[in-house]
From TrEMBL:
<feature type="domain" description="Amidohydrolase-related">
    <location>
        <begin position="47"/>
        <end position="420"/>
    </location>
</feature>
<keyword id="KW-0479">Metal-binding</keyword>
<keyword id="KW-0862">Zinc</keyword>
<comment type="function">
    <text>Catalyzes the hydrolysis of dihydropyrimidines and of the structurally related DL-5-mono-substituted hydantoins, to produce N-carbamoyl-D-amino acids.</text>
</comment>
<dbReference type="InterPro" id="IPR011778">
    <property type="entry name" value="Hydantoinase/dihydroPyrase"/>
</dbReference>
<comment type="subunit">
    <text>Homotetramer.</text>
</comment>
<dbReference type="InterPro" id="IPR050378">
    <property type="entry name" value="Metallo-dep_Hydrolases_sf"/>
</dbReference>
<protein>
    <recommendedName>
        <fullName>D-hydantoinase/dihydropyrimidinase</fullName>
        <ecNumber>3.5.2.2</ecNumber>
    </recommendedName>
</protein>
<dbReference type="InterPro" id="IPR011059">
    <property type="entry name" value="Metal-dep_hydrolase_composite"/>
</dbReference>
<dbReference type="GO" id="GO:0005829">
    <property type="term" value="C:cytosol"/>
</dbReference>
<dbReference type="InterPro" id="IPR006680">
    <property type="entry name" value="Amidohydro-rel"/>
</dbReference>
<dbReference type="GO" id="GO:0004157">
    <property type="term" value="F:dihydropyrimidinase activity"/>
</dbReference>
<dbReference type="InterPro" id="IPR032466">
    <property type="entry name" value="Metal_Hydrolase"/>
</dbReference>
<dbReference type="GO" id="GO:0055086">
    <property type="term" value="P:nucleobase-containing small molecule metabolic process"/>
</dbReference>
<dbReference type="GO" id="GO:0046872">
    <property type="term" value="F:metal ion binding"/>
</dbReference>
<comment type="similarity">
    <text>Belongs to the metallo-dependent hydrolases superfamily. Hydantoinase/dihydropyrimidinase family.</text>
</comment>
<dbReference type="GO" id="GO:0072527">
    <property type="term" value="P:pyrimidine-containing compound metabolic process"/>
</dbReference>
């Protein structure tokens, strides 16, 4: 059995050219003109691109007294419908819970996944067991990224001493630390003040975490990573203050990666001023949506390369779940959806407007992510030997985004009513057609865990340099006698 994608134009992060792609056993086996196989997929008029990788999703996430509503089945189905063929979720150990025990719980959620997935491990506290288990997580469990929440005080948040200890451990293990960068102490204090003043609606969620809160934490995390001698990945970079910190660090030579979300690129803070409580609450997420000025900064970062990838932070709660926070915005579960809409929205607002080239689009939705997470070229590539995670992209297909026709299990969509042009004709996951235009052919349980090896090059370079410039005792002769 072989499949040939015929008549399309291959678009990768660095090349655009006409060729057919032949697939066997879930992998790309040949790229070239006039290929034939048992099955043919017509790609005339389409771009053949590496499937999207979403580096930041929360499926069935236990959070704020409930669970996010999309699980690994509906979440990966939504992703495939929008051209995303791999997702990376976050394993979140409870207070004092073993990392390995938490990982077992996360493994148990994935049996119905329709597409491949991987995990980041969260560090939610610090002790000797966490220190020891981090090594097992990296060496035996195929996870090379550790997430640190600088916000959500009293729940997931870690303090600077814990974070610095973990960053140093990441440096030793060849792992990459991730941060949710918001100053959790300031957010907690501002939240209490706003509530005491009677400011309890969803708009106050945004008032409680202004851009400075994110900029400060981003700077702090960057400084700690620099001192620990480790690269850093900043999730959901939403504002100029955070972007500026990342830009500055990169100019200084640091490997710091920024991840704007499709929501922050295309939706703004005016959503929170909507008179309809449900409309505003459905858009409550951290960091909140920002002004147009911040959006421009994020687009500029993608264009210039100071920001590296585009994610969704897909964490979908139903309207009923959002209503836990009526009368107290601090109880509105934080999170929005986007898995199905990331690629079409970025293509429409990025490529169709001339803000991004097609190759930049592939880089920020797939290839850069695969490289940063160390799964390239198994994922994120159209190359012989790579997994056949492919999207055959029809730049002329249009639709109006609507909750009525979406794959996600929630009852609304934050992009409701938006017109998109550029949609999958086919999405293939390891060679199997999961989406054919509007027809969903996903197979529950087809998705596999993708192991990610520890980083060799960057961590080694950083530790070599760190050793070279380490503080050294000055050897002196003729030291004077101790004074009296
Ligand atoms: O509001 C958000 N972003 N919810 C998901 C958890 C997180 O902070 O990423
Ligand atoms: Zn976060
Ligand atoms: Zn998140
Ligand atoms: Zn299968």
């Amino acid at each position: 059995m072989s499949t040939v994608i015929k008549g399309g134009t291959i678009v990768t992060a660095d090349l655009t050219y006409k060729a057919d792609v032949k697939i066997e056993g879930g992998k790309i086996v040949e790229i070239g003109p006039n290929l034939s196989g048992t099955e043919t997929l017509d790609a005339t008029g389409c771009y053949v691109m590496p499937g999207g990788i979403d580096p930041h999703v929360h499926l069935e996430m236990p959070f704020m007294g409930t669970y996010s509503s999309d699980d690994f089945e509906s979440g990966t189905r939504a992703g495939l419908a929008g051209g995303t063929t791999m997702v990376v979720d976050f394993c979140l150990p409870g207070p004092e819970q073993s990392l390995l025990e938490a990982l077992q719980m996360w493994d148990n959620k994935t049996s119905r996944a329709n597409a491949d997935y991987s995990f980041h491990m969260a560090i939610t506290g610090w002790n000797e067991r966490v220190f020891n288990e981090m090594e097992t997580v990296v060496r035996d469990k195929g996870i090379n990224t550790f997430k640190h929440f600088m916000a959500y005080k009293g729940a997931l948040m870690v303090n600077d001493d814990e974070m610095f200890a973990s960053f140093q451990r990441c440096a030793e293990l060849g792992a990459l630390p991730l941060v949710h960068a918001e100053n959790g102490d300031v957010v907690a204090s501002m939240t209490a003040k706003l509530l005491a003043e009677g400011n309890n609606g969803p708009e106050a969620h945004a008032y409680s975490r202004p851009p400075e809160v994110e900029g400060e934490a981003t700077n702090r995390a960057i400084m700690l990573a620099d001192m620990a001698g480790v690269p850093l990945y900043v999730v959901h970079t939403s504002c100029e203050q955070a972007h500026e910190a990342i830009r500055r660090a990169r100019q200084k030579g640091m490997r710091v990666y920024g991840e704007p979300l499709i929501q922050h690129l295309t939706l703004d803070e005016s959503e929170y001023f909507d008179k309809d409580w449900d409309h505003a609450a459905r858009r409550v997420m951290s960091p909140p949506f920002r002004s147009k000025q911040h959006q421009d900064s994020l687009w500029a970062g993608l264009q210039s390369g100071s920001l590296s990838v585009v994610a969704t932070d897909h964490c979908a709660f139903t309207t009923d779940q959002k209503r836990f926070g009526v009368g107290n915005f601090a109880k509105i579960p934080n999170g929005t959806g986007g898995l199905e809409d990331r690629l079409p929205m970025l293509w429409t607002h990025g490529v169709n407007t001339g803000r991004l080239t097609m190759n930049e689009f592939v880089a920020v939705t797939s290839t850069n992510i695969a490289k940063i997470l160390n799964v390239y070229p198994k994922k994120g590539a159209i190359l012989v030997g790579a997994d056949a995670d492919i999207v055959v992209w029809d730049p002329k297909r249009s639709k109006t985004i609507s909750a009525k026709s979406q794959q996600s299990s929630i009852d609304y969509n934050v992009f409701e009513g938006k017109e998109v042009t550029g949609l999958p004709r086919y999405t293939l996951t390891r060679g199997e057609v999961a989406i054919e235009e509007s027809t969903v052919k996903t197979k529950e349980g087809h998705g596999q865990f993708v192991k990610r090896e520890p980083f060799q090059a960057v961590n080694k370079a950083l530790s070599t340099w760190k050793e070279l410039v380490a503080p050294r005792k000055v050897e002196r002769s003729g030291i004077p006698a101790t004074g009296v």
